[in-house]
Amino acid sequence: MRRGFIIGISVFCLLIFSVTGPMGDVITGWFGGGPPVRATLELPSGKAEITTNLYYSAGNLREFSEKFLGIGFFPEDADTDESTLAYATLMLLADDLEVIVTTNQLKAYMAPFAEYSSSEYQQIYQSQGYATARQFEARVASAIRIQTLVGMLGMAVMPSESEVMEAWAKDFEEMDVQYAVLHPSAFADAASTLEPEEEELLTFFATGINGMQRRDLEVEQAVSFDTVVLTADALNSDSVKAWFAPEEPTEEILNGFYQTNRFSLYRRPEPEEGVEVDAALGDHLTVEELGDRLRADYLLHKAITTLALELPQAEDAAAFASEKGAEYVKQDEMVAYSDLPEVERLGHMQLRRLFNAELNFWVQTPVQTDGMVYLARPLDRRDRVMPELAEIRDEVVTLWREGQQSVLATEAADAFLEGLPKAEDAVEGDPVVMDAEAFAAALAAADYAVEQMGWISKTNRRTTDPIWPVDSKILPRLRFMVGFQLDGYQDGEVIGPEDYGENGIVIAQLKGRRPANTEEVWPSERFRAEQSAQSIASQRFQADVLSFEGMANLYGLTKVAQEIEDEPEL
């Protein structure tokens, strides 16, 4: 009866659903005594098997751990099948060693979710396919359990003292380098005689001019504007008194005005040559030094802000200014951005606000100077624009010739390297390796100054590094470049040419290398060495323990040869 019942259920499933891999495993289990075995291994407690069910569970947990929690143990390019078997081995080993996840461990991982509301948290775990928070948190705990196991296994993989010192010696291996710099300026005369082809010049004009050069060539932005001006003398006129009768400012009001404007209005003038100023006075005039000027400036500011309320409605600014006892001043000619501070009488840095204001609208923030304040509005503007090539052809050709200096320097460096002797069996692309004295002689014969870096560690070492000139741009870069690739160079190998931009084209040679002096190890250097050794140990742990090969060596992990059809993708 039981067998008939199972057959009936199986037929029902076949009629209702398409048979998937996991369903096939279930049916196979009913009739065959359990799911197929993917691999076998030897745990501390005895023999174990990785069934297809465990294989799929391991793949799903691994994917959840990597993508959702960011906990991964295998390289991206690792074989998926073998990594899944290795992960399944870790799951079995965690069971065998009875690894547990503490409440505090789980809380630490779940802490970020405390920032979400209950509905938001529900959306998170449901989006991962879990019906309840308990199921989701149990999944997280399963992933943490594997991480805990890996941490336990990794504790045994600590670098030894000899490995630390080996890493230190590797970090601070010393090298001896000689080099020559072909500076572009040395080719200025040759470049000055060159004439560009028209097509070449057009291309350079379109794409070869850098930002600083373009800014120098562009016609500067400019603006025309008009102003309504109030002076200290005008405040005493009947026209102004007719609309402006302020209350006398209190000491508190004046102090507030001073604090607001001391950086723009009250900077201490530069002393005349030979006149000493008491440094204790500071960079700004004090309230006491200003005296009556502070009150006059405040009243001017108060008056212009009152006038600013009516000015936007005036159709004729000149007539409005005349009626109010003010002065109308118009700047018809365009004034360049850099020239605004120099405009006669009105010149001020704050006029540059006109480039951000709408045309024909008054800027409500007044411009104030000693004894005068005014409102301004832009009448017309001109943006920065690059002239046509025909208008600035000579300047562009000059820039092109400057660029050709580097081209000539590079060509000279290439020609020098091409002329160096090569080994008889050398093929294209092989480096030139030669005696250091012969290389120095070749540089001298080409009239290039030979510079010596001397023995120096391949990485920065403050305790023994030479003190290079502050303006030296070649030595730090050359030291880093050669040191970083030192393992790939041969002693005597010629390196370059390397383009260091405006600092020149460099041709170098690795004269030789030697071990670091292990008698002088500083604490900070040892810390770096410990980190390097730990990184090497971690890589070794990854290869020797966590990989499929590592599991095979440690636990006899062996694939079972069988064909499994219609496997679902992990």
Describe the structure.
Helix 3 packs across helix 7 and helix 4 (80-96) crosses helix 7. The protein starts with a helix and ends in an 11-residue tail after the last strand. Residues 11-22 have low confidence and may be disordered. It has a four-stranded antiparallel β-sheet with strand order 8-3-10-9, with helices on both faces. Strands 5-4-7-6 form a four-stranded antiparallel β-sheet. A three-stranded antiparallel β-sheet has the order 2-1-11. It contains 21 helices and eleven strands. With 570 residues, it is an alpha+beta fold.
- Gyration radius over CA: 40 Å
The termini sit apart by: 37 Å
Uncertain segments are 11-22
Shape: extended
Going across the biggest sheet, name each strand in turn. Answer: 8-3-10-9
Q: What is the averaged pLDDT score?
A: 86
Proportion in β-strands: 5-15%
The tally of helices reads 21
Q: Percent of residues in helical segments?
A: 40-55%
Please provide the count of β strands.
Answer: 11
Class from secondary-structure proportions:
alpha+beta
| Largest pleated sheet | 4 strands, antiparallel
